[in-house]
């Protein structure tokens, strides 16, 4: 159909629905329109259907998750090879009579509902009563943000992994696309590729569980190297400089495949009059349940709506045409799943009413679209508690995040007096400490009144924060506010610190990076949110170690309060995260709260005393200070920078009796958790191979049964649910975890002493264990130090040392130059 519009320009076709983009969503919409006999035109800018799937790597296995969701489309789709799926869709769209126009890129959409004009790149125009945008985000990838990112061996798409032979290839990003690319490049050993994949964190928040499992199996088989807490710092010819947890490292790299996500083509979409949920680059359009945008008559489906899964996209394509055809009774395909989930809640609300309640009442959900909320609820739980009922108790394991939809809770701040509480009201969250740190619950929380909460599993919460910037900001804001109130105390309320929180900025700091530099003017204060910092001063031209700041500390207030220059340099011991607080806002808080100013001045005086002590005696014991500084740096380099408890041995006192190892074995079923002789030594201090009980344990990063927990005294332990997968052993950077079979029970010490029964004290030999295993294959489990949790008297290794050479210390208690002053 051709004709002229009122301005005399040629209109090539007039249809009821114009569908832009032939990915799974657009193709499904066109298929439904064809089946219903709705006048339509599918506009595809390439010369083939479904460019989304077409650009998948050759031979890729396409998943059909989520399994519980019913497919609602006129086109078939099931898990299978990319080529097979594309073939089926080509065949079925032809048989259905789908009206498709290739090489037709839309550059502008004008008009109003019932009469839109779409202008194509070649100048042609199409008229439509309604427009469905199914253009996805694939064409707008996130670029690397580092020096050298524009070099020719950096690519953002992998078409055929079999093209590359005998190369060192680094994949950046551990979403599904990145993992699948890495697996494809490492699939054939004959290609001899050395494949490394970089994960900026320790979780796989954006990836499907099945893909994560395949990746870890490939790592275990030696085909792929996974680098956790690592990002690109600089791209060079044949090399890639990495920012790792412990500092920068350079690796050989012939090719970089960057799969760090993509963002909606915002400029074009906004030019069509469509508003987004927030100003963030990765935010999505505001949509109604019928997928209609803020521009009436323009609808958005698929990845552009925040739904990247193929089955979701195809269901939306079907649904949007049904809505446009007048089917107002149609419910989304996930309706039965959500209805069953919400059936446990009191009240007679339907799914839509519950979702409206959650979206309007809960702060962290206000920046995500209704469609994103539906997807999030599929991976979350909803719970009801009566007034007075505990949601969770202090020291319980748990890393889920709770959002209050109705009611409020009380946080018991004194474990010995449940009556001492602070409230958390409707719309807020709790449990964020367990989410961020992996620690056990820090307090008992009970319902102050009848309570309805949404419980987001760790994976669901991390995915929400990774894909919804507004939600991540809301979680960060709440966690920062609570950290400020906890640190500063002095009767502060959320209102008192609101200006500080508004101006707070979360910054990632690479290992060794300077946060504050001695001599600089001081304008801001910094909280150590994750990781740890080293404080040092230059004395005699050399940096001298002053102290160690673990997560939860703050620094920089001295210069802000008295207007002086920075008195010391603060740098990251390991890869860390800090919160920068504006100094002027902090001063205004101090003006209103004199008791806080008094507290801060007391801390300032203590630090000044240390500085004066160093300055006054530097001539007399510079060699001692220098030795202490080097020793402290050695300890930081060997893991104390992220430790909460570390075993040290004073070699001047150690007599090599091995009582520590024997006592450890006798306390743990005959398996010692430490190796006294292994490890590194500086001067007289030896760091044996024993668990550091890290602030953010690497071993916890991927434990399928969640068997690794943190105890009441900070100890990191592995419980009886361990399945022996070995992930913790692979993730530990200090080699303190081993996989071993639990030996048969040894006879008692008295039996050994008087009748010679058993192998004696300590860890039994492998020959004894094999002989007494009675022919059964003992399952292996992860073995590591648990600080003798539950054993009266504390760590056996320390108690068994006859000379006092073995000590267990926390870094902040040990690493301080003030100790020198005490010793003098």
CATH homologous superfamily of the largest domain, by name?
FAD/NAD(P)-binding domain
The total count of strands amounts to: 42
In the CATH hierarchy, the architecture of the largest domain is 3-Layer(bba) Sandwich
Give the integer mean of the pLDDT values: 83
How large, in whole angstroms, is the Cα Rg? 31 Å
Termini separation = 96 Å
CATH third-tier fold name of the largest domain: FAD/NAD(P)-binding domain
Molecular shape: globular
Helix content: 25-40%
Pfam families: cNMP_binding, Fer4_11, Pyr_redox_2
Protein name: Oxidoreductase
GO molecular function: 4 iron, 4 sulfur cluster binding; metal ion binding; oxidoreductase activity
Keywords: 4Fe-4S, Electron transport, Iron, Iron-sulfur, Metal-binding, Transport
Topology:
Blueprint lengths: L2 E2 L5 E11 L3 H13 L3 E4 L7 H4 L6 E2 L17 E2 H15 L3 E2 L4 E7 L2 E6 L4 E9 L20 E2 L12 E5 L3 H11 L7 E6 L9 H12 L3 E5 L2 E6 L2 E6 L2 E6 L2 E4 L7 H6 L26 E3 L9 H15 L10 H8 L8 H11 L8 H9 L1 E6 L4 E3 L8 E6 L2 E4 L8 E4 L4 E2 L1 H6 L6 E4 L3 E6 L1 H10 L1 H20 L9 H6 L1 E5 L4 E3 L7 E7 L1 E8 L2 E9 L3 E2 L1 H6 L6 E4 L3 E7 H10 L1 H44 L8 E5 L8 H9 L7 E8 L2 E5 L18 E3 L5 E3 L8 H5 L6 E4 L7 H7 L10 H6 L8 E4 L12 H5 L5 E4 L1 H4 L3 H6 L1
Pfam family, one: Fer4_11
GO molecular function: 4 iron, 4 sulfur cluster binding; metal ion binding; oxidoreductase activity
Keywords: 4Fe-4S, Electron transport, Iron, Iron-sulfur, Metal-binding, Transport
């Amino acid at each position: 159909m051709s004709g002229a519009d009122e301005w005399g320009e040629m209109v090539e076709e007039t249809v009821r629905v114009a569908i832009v983009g032939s990915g799974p969503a657009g193709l499904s919409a066109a298929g439904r329109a064809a089946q219903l006999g709705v006048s339509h035109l599918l506009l595809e800018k390439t010369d083939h259907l479904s460019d989304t799937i077409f650009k998948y790597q050759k031979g890729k296995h396409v998943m059909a998750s989520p399994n519980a969701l019913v497919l609602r489309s006129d086109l078939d789709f099931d898990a299978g090879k990319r080529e097979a799926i594309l073939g089926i869709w080509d065949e079925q769209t032809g048989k259905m009579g789908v009206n498709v126009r290739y090489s037709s890129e839309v550059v502008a959409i004008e008009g109003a509902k019932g009469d839109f004009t779409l202008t194509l790149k070649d100048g042609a125009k199409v008229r439509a009563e309604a427009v469905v945008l199914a253009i996805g985000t694939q064409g707008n990838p996130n670029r690397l943000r580092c020096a050298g990112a524009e070099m020719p061996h950096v690519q953002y798409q992998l078409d055929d992994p079999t093209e590359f032979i005998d190369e060192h290839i680094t994949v950046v990003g551990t979403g599904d696309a990145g993992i699948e690319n890495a697996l494809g490049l490492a699939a054939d050993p004959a290609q001899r590729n050395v494949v490394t994949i970089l994960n900026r964190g320790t979780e796989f928040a954006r990836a499907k569980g099945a893909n994560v499992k395949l990746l870890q199996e490939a790592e275990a088989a030696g085909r792929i190297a996974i680098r956790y807490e690592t990002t690109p710092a600089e791209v060079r010819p044949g090399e890639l400089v990495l920012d790792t947890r412990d500092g920068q490292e350079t690796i050989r790299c012939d090719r970089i495949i960057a799969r760090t996500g993509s963002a909606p083509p915002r400029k074009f979409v906004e030019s069509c009059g469509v508003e987004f949920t927030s100003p963030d680059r990765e935010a999505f359009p505001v949509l109604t349940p019928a997928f209609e945008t803020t521009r009436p008559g323009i609808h958005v489906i698929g990845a552009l709506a925040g739904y990247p899964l193929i089955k979701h996209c195809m269901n939306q394509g079907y649904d949007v045409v049904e809505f446009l055809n007048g089917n107002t009774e149609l419910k989304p395909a996930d309706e039965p799943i959500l209805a069953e989930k919400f059936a446990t809640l009191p009240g007679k609300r339907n799914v839509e009413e519950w979702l409206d309640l959650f979206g309007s009442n809960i702060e962290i959900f206000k920046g995500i679209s209704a469609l994103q909320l539906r997807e999030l609820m599929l991976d979350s739980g909803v719970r009801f508690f009566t007034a007075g009922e505990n949601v969770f108790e202090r020291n319980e394991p748990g890393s889920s995040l709770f959002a209050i939809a109705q009611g409020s809770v009380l946080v018991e701040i004194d474990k010995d007096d449940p009556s001492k509480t602070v409230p958390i009201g409707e719309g807020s969250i709790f449990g964020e400490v367990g989410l961020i740190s992996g620690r056990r619950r820090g307090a008992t929380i009970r319902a102050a009144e009848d309570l309805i909460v949404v419980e987001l599993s760790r994976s669901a919460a991390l995915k929400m924060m990774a894909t919804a910037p507004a939600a991540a900001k809301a979680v960060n804001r709440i966690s920062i506010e609570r950290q400020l109130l906890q640190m500063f105390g002095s009767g502060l309320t959320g209102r008192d610190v609101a200006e500080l929180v508004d101006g707070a900025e979360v910054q990632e700091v690479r290992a060794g990076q300077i946060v504050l530099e001695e001599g600089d003017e001081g304008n801001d204060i910094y909280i150590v949110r994750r990781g740890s910092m080293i404080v040092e001063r230059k004395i005699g031209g050399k940096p001298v170690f002053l102290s160690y700041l673990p997560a939860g500390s703050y620094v920089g207030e001295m210069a802000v309060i008295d207007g002086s220059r920075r008195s010391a340099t603060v740098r990251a011991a390991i890869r860390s995260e800090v919160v920068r607080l504006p100094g002027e806002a902090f001063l205004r808080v101090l003006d209103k709260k004199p008791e806080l100013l008094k507290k801060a001045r007391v801390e300032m005086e203590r630090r000044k005393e240390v500085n004066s002590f160093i300055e006054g005696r530097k001539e007399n014991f510079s060699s001692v200070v220098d030795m202490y500084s080097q020793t402290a740096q050695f300890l930081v380099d060997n893991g104390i920078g992220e430790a909460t408890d570390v075993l040290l041995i004073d070699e001047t006192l150690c007599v090599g009796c091995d009582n520590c190892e024997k006592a450890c074995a006798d306390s743990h079923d005959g398996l010692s958790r430490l190796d006294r002789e292994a490890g590194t030594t500086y001067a007289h201090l030896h760091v044996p191979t024993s668990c550091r009980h890290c602030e953010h344990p690497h071993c916890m990063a991927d434990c399928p049964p969640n068997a690794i927990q943190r105890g009441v005294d900070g100890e990191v332990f592995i419980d009886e649910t361990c399945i022996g997968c070995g992930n913790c052993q692979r993730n530990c950077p200090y080699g303190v975890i081993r996989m071993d079979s639990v030996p048969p029970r040894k006879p008692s010490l008295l039996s050994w002493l008087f009748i010679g029964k058993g192998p004696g004290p300590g860890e039994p030999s492998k020959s004894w264990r094999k002989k007494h295993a009675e022919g059964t294959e003992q399952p292996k489990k992860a073995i590591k130090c648990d600080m003798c949790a539950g054993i009266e008297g504390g760590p056996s290794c320390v108690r068994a040392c006859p000379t006092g050479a073995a000590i267990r210390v926390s870094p902040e208690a040990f690493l301080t130059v003030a100790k020198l002053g005490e010793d003098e």
